[in-house]
Fold:
Amino acid sequence: MAEVGAADAAQEREFLTYSGPTPGVKYPLSVTYCGECTMPIEYCEYYVNYEKCKEWLQKNVPDAFEKLTLGKASGEGEADKKEEGAEGEKKKRQTRGGKGLMKAKKKVEPQGIRMWTASRGKKKKVTIVVGLASYEIDLKEACKFFATKFSCGSSVSGDDEIVIQGDVKDDLFDILPEKWSQIDEDDIDDLGEKK
Structure:
């Protein structure tokens, strides 16, 4: 057993020692980074929008683009056939690093604010407010504002729904237009009580 441990230690020391420059490599090394995904160009193929990376490489670094595409020309068709599903769409694969894709927010016309109360347990009530996001109001900020204003719990549930603990529906008619000027008092609908 002692001999095996000594052999492993000797191999590790050999691995960690510097043996000098590698023959055939020009120093200092220079790495070319893609302007689209901000990764070294060897890793562009793992970026979600690889097509945009190809366009950037073709425009800015044509010699590197040719090297990357020459190596893949023969096996590319087979890989694409494997990746295509029954619907003909390519499967989305998990990627790491690079820029995350930003989803474009759709411009939505304000449809009004609806609020109602619901019972929680036997005696407690919650107020549910829906429609603030269509007025371009940050739901997390609104939730925090309601929690401090009414000294209660408040949370965002769903894409455009805020749940406030307690029956504060009547107070919201005055507070919403006062806090956010884009909300008109006529836009607020009281739907009563739902279960």
Q: What stands out?
A: Residues 177 and 185 are 6 Å apart (CA to CA). The first helix runs from residue 2 to 16. The radius of gyration is 30 Å.
